[in-house]
Please model this.
Amino acid sequence: MESRMEEDIIKERLKNYAYCEDGLSKTKIGLKEVYNSSPTARSQAKHLCAGLEEFSEVELDFEGLDWMGQGFAHQLFIVFANNNPNVKLVIKGMSDDVKKMYNHVMNTK
Model:
C-alpha cells in the first residue's frame, strides 16, 4: 500500500517532463524518491503507471533500490508495456538483484 507521501511524489512527476509539439514527450521517475522500501505489489505498479500512457518515453531510475517484487515487475514491464506499446520504458540504475527480477519477468512472458 502506498503512503500519502508516495502518492504525492507520483503526482509531482508531471512537473518533470519535456514537452513537444504533439504533447507530453518524456518524464523521469526516481523510484527511490517514490518508495520508502523496495516495491513489491502489482498495485504499486498500477498506481505508478497511472497517466504514463500520455508520454512517449518514461525513464525509470532504480538507483538506491535493492530489490523489487515479481508482481510489481510483471505489472510494469509486461502488462503496462504490452498495453502501451507506444511508450518507451528507459531503465537506469538497476542493482544486480533488481536486474535478476527484471530478467526473470521478461523471460516468462
Summary: The longest strand covers residues 23-30.
